[in-house]
Specification:
Blueprint (H helix, E strand, L loop, with lengths): L16 E7 L7 E3 L1 H4 L6 H4 L3 E4 L6 E3 L6 E3 L5 H5 L6 E8 L4 E10 L12 E7 L7 E4 L14 E4 L5 E9 L2 E8 L10 E9 L7 E11 L7 E3 L2 E3 L9 E9 L7 E3 L6 E3 L10 E10 L6 E9 L9 E7 L3 E2 L7 E8 L9 E6 L4 E7 L2 E6 L10 E10 L6 E11 L7 E2 L3 E7 L13 E2 L9 E5 L15 E10 L6 E11 L7 E2 L7 H12 L3 E9 L7 E5 L1 E2 L9 E7 L6 E3 L5 E4 L10 E10 L6 E11 L1 H18 L6 E2 L1 H36 L13 E5 L14 E2 L8 E5 L24 E2 L1
Parallel strand pairs: 1-7, 8-14, 23-29, 31-35, 37-44, 46-47
Antiparallel strand pairs: 2-5, 3-6, 4-5, 6-7, 9-12, 10-13, 11-12, 13-14, 15-16, 17-20, 18-19, 20-21, 22-24, 24-27, 25-28, 26-27, 28-29, 30-32, 33-34, 34-35, 36-39, 38-42, 38-45, 40-43, 41-42, 43-44, 46-48, 48-49
Length: 768
């Protein structure tokens, strides 16, 4: 049974290396070592992190069990096939561990077993010896070879029993022995013409293995003097043909390299017939034979050793043993990208190799073990700047001249979601006309995300966290909201942009006439409805004859729901055309007298006033103003009565501010007060005169009676009565001026004569 000997399963301090030993010819499935445990991995971690092996140049014949993490024999292990005569036979393996990528070194020594028997160059060998050869004559023999190493290749030789021959073995070292067949007794061709011996080679293995070669020795007739060697130059003191001889190569070590050399049969000059390779065989041993032409021929032997000197004939070799690509752009500095093996078959300075990476960034080389390098990340990556690198690993040996090698490595960079979508502008200003249909495009925004695939796929939305929330919202003339762009990465990244939407006005609203202040609510609604349409609205006003030019009679009030020029109104007097008694302020809407009013202007004037905006096309509304021409006092009273009637009966005297009458009332009020005062004084004088004559003097006048309150506003008119006390107010709010008018109110005279000396208390006629 094959047993596995674990020589060492500990970390070497210098290189972090695990060493195992396994005999050759171990069966498939044989456990070499508990690799996962020796690397310090937990149970199940080897499979989760894909623990695997990368062989260094030669077939390793071992594998890692994914389930257990043990190192197993996967195929036949033949030390002689893997390493030849090299000792020890150590296989350098690299172990990869992912997530994160780590590299470990494993050295597996394949130990030798005695599975190869000694082999002679031939199954038999023919020798010729003269019968007069003296005892002690030595004839060189070619030894056997053993493919094993160590004790398994240490050979001992024995010769089958013979009274004529013995075997002499001389050891130059433990692996090289010279064999000589020694003549122990004089030969007699007539007695024994042919001798047959068996040469046996036995190795030092347990159990030992053997190999044999048959020696066939022919005895020749006598020939006095054999040739003697002087280096590779032989001499023969014999005369004639006995003095002539020729050279030949009997054998070579290693076996099979005899064809690399030739020897000149006459001169003994050895020449190369093939190419020597220091890396294959560093020492050649040739057995040379010189044979004369005598009868019988005699021969002499010598051994020639040729040492091969190394020259720089092998360029470095760069192999990529493992490549972990693509590399994520957020990979940390020091991440292992690839594992490389660099070797040079030459020796000494010719085999010393220097390696580097071109270009120098962002990758570099780190020596991990003899001849092993890791291509590692030296700088941070950015896929959006460089998405792929073409890296060249260069190697140069120390020979003269130096030989070089290079190996290209393509390193793609994989994307991570490290870029948020970015709008071209932080703030977008959008101008849109009103009356757009729902779903109409207002503007087109675009956010750039330089990532790829899902990391760069952007979706847009109105940000729910903005003012008013997401979705549709009512728009005024100005709306500000945020648009959010979100990519599909994990985790998703987003960018925001502010959209300022300005709604451009269109002239879609006609001017609307406003109801006069103090009018009934239904009158106001009627005015607004009429003003928004295209029909004409009739308004009333009063003016006094004799009013001077510039006297404000009424004021047309209108509004436009549009803005800007579309809401800028102008007022035009459409009828009567020509030089009429009235005019309209172009932008104020005030109807005033163009000249002094005369009786010839008639009792009534009909004015058609058009209100237009400045839009394109312009929209308009029409108001018909009926101005009644009265005497000054009548105009004031009519204005007051009309105002009271308007508030009680809710008639639609719409769109006009009656403040025009207030301007004339401010002039006429004093006239009315003066007339009332003079009338009161006259009446008082008459009463006092009558009382002084007919009334008793003891009568006492009562105090003043109830007063009459007249309120005047900027849009109101006057109303007065001597018979009734009433409160008149046109405007809803306080007027410009309040007049308190006190009128005398005498009770009926008491019966009896009036006192002549009774004097009434003077009453305040006017208090402002």
């Amino acid at each position: 049974a094959v047993r596995v000997l674990v020589l060492q399963a500990a970390w070497a301090l210098a290189g972090g290396q695990v060493r195992y030993s396994v005999p050759e010819e171990a069966k498939g499935g044989t456990v070499v070592g508990r690799l996962a445990q020796d690397l310090g991995l937990e149970a199940g971690e080897a499979e989760a992190r894909r623990l695997r092996l990368v062989a260094q140049g030669r077939r390793a014949s071992v594998e890692v069990s994914g389930a257990s993490g043990a190192l197993l024999v996967s195929s036949r292990l033949d030390r002689e096939e893997l390493c030849g005569k090299s000792a020890p036979c150590a296989l350098r393996l690299e172990v990869l561990l992912e997530r994160p990528l780590r590299v470990f070194h494993v050295e597996l020594e394949v130990t030798d077993i005695n599975d190869n028997a000694p082999i002679f160059p031939a199954a038999w060998k023919n020798l010729s010896l003269s019968e007069n050869s003296p005892p002690g004559f030595r004839f060189p023999l070619e030894g056997a070879s053993d493919a094993d190493i160590g004790a398994n290749a240490q050979l001992s030789y024995t010769l089958s029993p013979s009274e004529y021959f013995t075997l002499d073995v001389k050891s130059s070292d433990e692996n090289r022995k010279s064999l000589f067949l020694v003549l122990a007794k004089s030969l007699d061709r007539e007695t024994i013409p042919v001798h047959r011996l068996v040469l046996t080679a036995t190795d030092g293995g347990r159990p030992s293995l053997t190999g044999t070669m048959e020696l066939v020795i022919s005895v020749l007739d006598a020939n006095d003097n054999p040739p003697q060697f002087n280096h590779v130059n032989a001499t023969d003191p014999d005369e004639g043909s006995n003095k002539e001889f020729f050279y030949s190569i009997l054998s070579s070590i290693p076996i099979g390299n005899r064809e690399l050399f030739t020897i000149n049969a006459k001169t003994g000059e050895i020449r190369l017939a093939g190419t020597l390779d220091f890396e294959d065989v560093r020492l050649h041993e040739l057995q040379i034979e010189a044979t004369d032409k005598g009868t019988p021929p005699l021969s002499g032997h010598c051994s020639v050793e040729l040492e091969v000197l190394d020259v720089n004939d092998n360029a470095p070799e760069v192999r990529v043993t493992s490549l972990s690509v693509p590399v994520a752009e957020d990979a940390s500095v020091g991440t292992v990208v690839a594992l490389l093996s660099v070797s040079d078959r030459d020796s000494g300075a010719n085999g010393r190799v220097r390696c580097w990476v071109w270009p120098a960034s962002p990758f570099g080389l780190e020596a991990t073990f003899a001849g092993s390098y890791s291509l590692v990340l030296r700088e941070a990556l950015d896929r959006e700047r460089v998405s792929e690198y073409e890296v060249e690993v260069r190697a140069e040996d120390g020979g003269a001249p130096a030989l070089r090698a290079r190996r290209g490595v393509r390193v793609p960079v994989s994307d991570v979601n490290d870029n948020a979508p970015a709008f071209a502008q932080a703030v977008y200003t959008v101008l849109a006309r009103e009356n757009n249909a729902a779903g109409a495009e207002l503007a087109r925004l675009w956010a750039r995300d330089p990532d790829e695939a899902g990391n760069g796929r952007v979706s847009y939305s109105v940000w729910e966290g903005g003012v008013g929330g997401g979705g549709w919202r009512p728009a005024s003339s100005y709306v500000s909201f945020e648009v959010r762009a979100v990519d599909a990465g994990e985790p998703p990244l987003c960018g925001n942009a502010t959209v300022q939407l300005f709604v451009l006005d269109e002239n879609d609203n006609a001017p609307a006439l406003l109801a006069p202040a103090g009018s009934a609510p239904e009158a106001g609604e009627a005015a607004a409805a009429a003003g928004s349409g295209s029909g004409s609205v009739t308004l009333w006003a009063w003016a006094a004859w004799g009013a001077a030019a510039g006297q404000v009679v009424a004021k047309i009030r209108a509004v436009d729901a549009d803005s800007g020029y579309n809401a800028w109104l102008r007022y035009e007097l459409w009828e009567p055309r020509g030089k009429g008694p009235f005019r309209v302020g172009l932008y104020s809407g005030e109807v005033s007298t163009a000249r002094a009013l005369e009786e010839a202007d008639g009792p009534r004037q009909r004015l058609v006033i058009v209100v237009r905006d400045h839009g394109e096309p312009a929209r308009s509304a029409t108001a018909t103003l009926s101005v009644s021409l009265l005497e000054a006092a009548e105009a004031a009273l009519a204005a007051a009565a009309g105002s009271s009637s308007s508030s009680s009966s809710s008639r639609s005297a719409v769109g006009v501010e009656m403040g025009s009458v207030a301007a004339s009332a401010a002039t006429n009020v004093w006239l009315v007060v003066a007339i009332c005062a003079v009338s009161s004084l006259f009446l008082l004088a008459v009463v006092l005169y009558g009382a002084s004559r007919w009334a008793p003097r003891a009568a006492v006048l009562s105090g003043p009676g109830p007063t009459t309150l007249v309120c005047a506003s900027e849009v109101g008119s006057w109303s007065y009565s001597q018979r009734h006390s009433r409160s008149l107010c046109v405007a809803d709010g306080a007027g410009k001026s309040d007049l308190m008018v006190f009128s005398p109110n005498f009770p009926p005279p008491p019966p009896g004569p009036a006192a002549k000396d009774a004097q009434p208390e003077p009453s305040a006629l006017l208090d402002t």
